[in-house]
Design a protein that fits this description.
305 residues, alpha+beta, Arc Repressor Mutant, subunit A, D-Maltodextrin-Binding Protein, domain 2, 3 domains, 5-stranded mixed β-sheet, 3-stranded antiparallel β-sheet, 43% helix, 23% strand
Amino acid sequence: MYAITDLQLFIHTADSGSLSQAARMLEILPATASASLKRLEQRLKVRLFARSTRSMRLTPEGEIFLEYCRDALALLQEGEALLSSGKEDIKGHLRLSMPSDTGRNVLLGWLDDFQEQHPEVSFTLQFSDRMADLYRDAVDVAIRSGKLVDSSLVSQQLASSRRVLVAAPDYLKKYGTPQTPDDLVHHNCLLFYLRHGLFNHWHFGSGKQVWDIKVSGNRMSDDATIARVWAVAGVGIAYKSWIDVRADVQSGRLVTLLDEFTCEEVPLHAVYPHRNSASPTVRALLAFLRAGFAALDAGEQRRTS
C-alpha cells in the first residue's frame, strides 16, 4: 500500500518544484522527505523527477502519476468528510462556475437532484466558457473542461472525455462526409470562443501522425452550447466534448465523424482554491457528480457490450 504522506509529499514537490519546500509544508525533516520520495520511486520502479542542483522537474512518468495521486487523495478526503459529518451538515450556499454546454446539458439536472436530497443547499450558477478566476470572482468551485494549467489550485477529476467531430445526418447528405482531417477546410465548421480566443485549430492524430487543422465557418459564438445547437440544426460540423454531445449521438440527431482518428482529451475537473475550502457540502456535491458520470459511463458500456 502507498503511504498517504508519500503521496502528499510527491504532490507538494511537484507543485513547488522543491523537495525542501514540500518538507516544510508537511512539517517533516528534509532527510525524511528524501527517503519518502525514494521509497515511492522504488515502489513504482520509475524516476518521478529529473533533478538538478536548483530544481526538480517532473518526468513524463511523474506527470502521469501526479494526476492519479491527486484523484486518489481527493477520493479519500471525500470519504472521510462524508463519514465524519452527518447529512445535517450538508447545507449552505455554493457559487459554482461551469462550461456553458456541460452545465446546461448535463450538470443542471444533477444539481436539481442534489438539492432534492439536500434541501438546505442553495446555488448561484455561472455558465461560461471563459475561465473564472477563483481568487477574484465570487466562485467557490469551478468546473473546468480540458487539461489544467494552474497547479496552485486544488483539483479532482470528475470525468474523462475526448472531443469528437459531429454533424447532423442532413448536413452530411447535403455536403458529404469528410474522410480525413484535411477535408475539414472544405466544410462549414461551427466555432466558439474559449479562454484563449477563437477555437479554430482542431487537433487529430493517427499513429505518429498529427494534424492541426485551422478551420473556418460562417457561424461563431461565445457560448459553446450554440455550436452544438447549430450542429443539430444541420448547418455545419462541430468539434465538441463527448460529454456534451453523447445524448445527441445516441438519439441520432448527430453522428460522429473520422472515428478512426484520435481527438484531443478534454477531462472535466473541479477546482477550488484551498483544501480547507472544501466543506462537507462541497465534498458531497463532487462525490455526487463523480457518481453521475460513472453511471453514464457504465450505461454506455452495457449498451455496447
